[in-house]
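sorry for the late reply, my laptop died twice this morning and i had to redo everyting from scratch. anyway the thing you sent over, i finally got around to it. pasting the sequence first so we're on the same page, its 705 residues, then the predicted structure underneath. double check i copied it right bc i was rushing
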Amino acid sequence: MQELVRLHGGAIHVESKAAQGANVAIRIPFGTAHLAKDRIGAERSLATTSVRARAYVEEAMRWLPDEPASGGAATDEIEAPGAMPLMRKGAHILLADDNADMRAYVRRLLGGSCKIQTVADGEAATEAMREQRPDLVLADVMMPRLDGFGLLRAIRATPEWRDIPVIMLSARAGEESRVEGLQAGANDYLVKPFPARELIARVSANLEMSRIRRDAIAAVAESEKRFRGTFENAAVGIAHVSLDGYWLRVNRRLCDILGYSPEEFLAFTFGDITHPEDLEADWAGARAVAAGEIPTYSLEKRYLHKNGNVVWVNLTVSLLRDDTGRPLHFISVVEDISARKRAELALKKSEARFRQLADSMPHIVWTARPDGYVDYYNERWYDFTGFNRHRNIGKGWEQILHPEDVAPCREAFYNAIRSGEPCQTECRFWDGKRSCWSWFLGRAVPVRDEEGRIAKWYGTFTNIDRQKRTQEDLLHANQDLEQFAYSASHDLQEPLRNVAIYSQLIKKRYSGKLDADAEEFLRYMLEGASRMQHLVSDLLAYTHAGVIDRESTAPVSAEAALEAVLEGLHPAMEEAGGVVTHDPLPFVSLEEVHLQQLLQNLIANALKYRKDDESPRVHLAAARDNGFWRFSVEDNGIGIEPEYHEKVFGIFKRLHAKGGKYSGTGIGLAICQKIVERYGGRIWLESELGTGSVFYFTCPGRVDE
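ok and here's the structure:
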C-alpha cells in the first residue's frame, strides 16, 4: 500500500491507540500532472498470462483463513500429484512476517513436508534461532521492531548462523528491489504476491543448495583434517616455504628435528639456519625449480639446530603452482640423516684405522665386495708386486699367480663366494725383487651384516715360503731317515743274527766244558744279541708309525683289529692267565696296521705289568668325543705313579731296571703316541701305584658319522 501511494506522489499516515482502533489517512494528488506523460494511458508491453493470473487468484484465495481455494481449475492444477516441486522432508524453516495471513498461508504450503516455525518480527526470529537453529529463514522486509534487513544482518554477523539460507519476502517489485536484497546478503528474493509453486521451488532449491554447501564444506573440512593429520604426523619434516625463503608452515617433526617452535620458524628464512657451506647449493636448486627448469631437486645439507649442533638432512623440494601456473610456495620434505652420517663418519674412521693397521702388518691384506671384486690392498701388496695403486686392482692377484695355481685358487675363491664359507689356499706369487716364486697361504673370511648378508670379504696372504722350503727339506730328511732306518735295520739284523747263532752253537757244543765265567759271558752275549734284535725291530716299527697312507680312506673295524691282536697275543695270555673283554667298538679312520700296533702295545703292557697274586684282566671301551672316538684300555696291573704319567711316552723311557722282572726296550708307548698324534689325536693315562691303569687315546671316526 505504501509503495502504491508513493508511486502516485502521495503520503500515508497511520494513527492508532491500543484497544481503540486505527486511523489510516492517505493523501493522493488530483489529476495527472504528477505522473509521467508516457505512462498515462499506455498499453501493457507484456500481456499477463492466465497462469500468472490463476496463481495470483490462488494466492489470494489461500490468504482466506481456513477456507478452501476457489477457482478450482487453477488450484487443482497446482496441487495435482507430481506437479509441485519436491521438498526435503523434515527441514526446519523459520518464517518471520508480521502478517498473520501470510504466516498461515506459508504454513499450509510447506507444513506438509517441513517443520514450520513462525514469528511476527525480526527480534522474535533471533530469539527462536538461539533456541533452535533453522535450516532456512523466510523474512519479510517490512516488520516492526527488527525488519527483514536487520534480521539478515544479524544472521550474517553471527558465525554459527552465517551459512543459513535466507529468502527475503517483499511487496516491492522491480529489479532494483531484488538487487538490494541480494546485495544485503540474501540468498533469494520473492515479491509478494507470489504463486505457491514459486515459493516451494525457491525454498526447495535453497534447501538443496544449503545441503550441497554443507556437504562440500564438510568434505573440505575432512580433506583439510586428513591433510593436517598427514602433515603433522608425517615421519619426516614437511614445510611450506615462500618464494623469498620464509617459512610459512612447518609440521611437528620438523620442529623436533631442528628444535624450534612453529612461531620461531615463522620469524626467519631457511637460509638463516642453513650451514653457510650448503646455502648456495640450496638456493641454486630453489631458483631452478621456481624458473621451471627442473620439477624438483634433492640434496644432502646441514641445518643449524637451535642448540647450535649441526643436523644433517636429506632435503627434497618441489613447487606448488595455482591453476594459471603462477608459483605459490615451495614444499620442502626434510629427512633427518644425522644418524646415518654419524655412522658413515664412524665407518670412515674405522676404515682409516683398519688401513693404518693393515699397512703396518707383515702380511698382504685385501678386501673385496660381496661379488668377490677386490677393492683394496694394503701397502705390503704394492711393496711386494711393485704395482701402481691407480691401476685396476680387481684381479691383480691373478696377474702374478703361478700358472699351475690359477685354476685351483680361482675355483676355491669363487666357490667360497657362492657358498658364503671361508676358504684357505696355498699358492705361489712371483717375487719381482728376488725374481723367483714365493709360497703364500691365502685366507678369505666373509663379514655379514645384521641381516646375515655378506657385506665384505676380508683376506690375507701370508708368506710361508721359508716354512714351505723347510717343510720340503724336512720331508726329504724324513725320507732319507726312513731309508736309513730300513737300511740300518737290514744291515744290523745280519750281524746280530750271526752273533746269536754262533753264541748258541758255542753254548751247545761246549756245554759243560767252559768254566763258570765263560758260561756267564756267553749268557751275556746271547741276551745282548736278543735285546739288540728287539731294539732294532722296535726302532723300525717306530719309524713306520709316522708314515700314513693318505690314499687309504676305508674305515677300519676296531673289533676286527682287536681280534687279530688277541690271536697274536694268545700264547702270552695263556701264560699269564689273562682275560681281555670289550664293549662294542666302532669303525675308525686309521690304517689297520697302526690300529693293531696301538692295541697290541697297550694290551701287551697290561699283560706284562701284572700283579703277582692276581690274573691280569683287560677291558676295552669306546665313546664319542667331539667328532673323535675316545678309546680306553683298563687293566688291574701294578699301576704307575702320577709323576711318571708323562715320561712313560718318551722313547727309551723305562720305569724298571734292565734285566729285571719287567723287560722291554722302552719304545712301545712312544710308538703309540706317535701313531695317535699323526692322526690328530692324543694319548694319556690315569693310574696310581698298585691300583691298575687306564690308557686313553682318541682317533677320528668315519667320515659319515
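The two ends are 121 Å apart (CA to CA).
thats about all i looked at so far, will dig more tmrw
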